[in-house]
Amino acid sequence: LEEIPPRPVQDTGNILKQGYLEKRSREHSFFGSEWQKRWCVLNRRTFYYYANEKSKQPKGNFPIENYSARLAFHLRKDSRKKCCFELICPGKRTYEFTAPSPAEAEDWVDQIQFLLKDLSSSTIPFDEEDEEELYNDVDSSDSVNTTSHNTTLNQDEPNVEVKEDDIYEILPGKQPKPE
């Protein structure tokens, strides 16, 4: 049997923002670049960064809670300095990024600040979306088809005895009308 590969975060459905950013590496070598292009994904709890858009495994991730986001023009001296922002959490690593444009940098900061406000608010449960996903299978088309199929089978025989272990019960007068 073929193993199913792990799904990339992009498939989880609760993404607030994603896109390419340049991330400043923690230890850059003499030959390596200080800024590396990364596909970044923000969901309701975690900030992920990947080598590229198609990567299955993140290069790294961190819980976004307790971080703060702000524009950080001091990170670069070149023409892209107004595209920089950083994520800061006391006692933890500071993450530094360069967006493709100043507007995009502001949008990342705004999205993260909005999310953090939600996470710190006691009135908005932060796993609201996850709960919905757990119950989506209840009305899957399989159970609907099974029910209508059994009803159709019994439609012509209204006096069929129902065995005790049969989960379907035929009620008088409740037969579906033929279409």
TrEMBL record:
Q: Give the Low complexity compositional bias ranges.
A: 141-152
Supply the gene name: Skap1
Please list where the region (Disordered) is annotated. 128-179
Provide ranges: composition bias, Acidic residues: 128-140
Q: What residues does the PH domain cover?
A: 14-117
Recorded source organism is Dromas ardeola
Q: Which UniProt keywords apply?
A: Cell membrane, Cytoplasm, Membrane, Nucleus, Phosphoprotein
User: What are the GO cellular component annotations?
Assistant: cytoplasm; nucleus; plasma membrane
- Domain of life, per UniProt, equals Eukaryota
Where mainly located? membrane
Q: Which Pfam families match?
A: PH
Q: Which InterPro entries match?
A: PH-like_dom_sf, PH_domain, SKAP_fam
Where does the protein end up?
Answer: Cell membrane; Cytoplasm; Nucleus
For the keyword Phosphoprotein, the answer is yes
What's the protein here called? SKAP1 protein
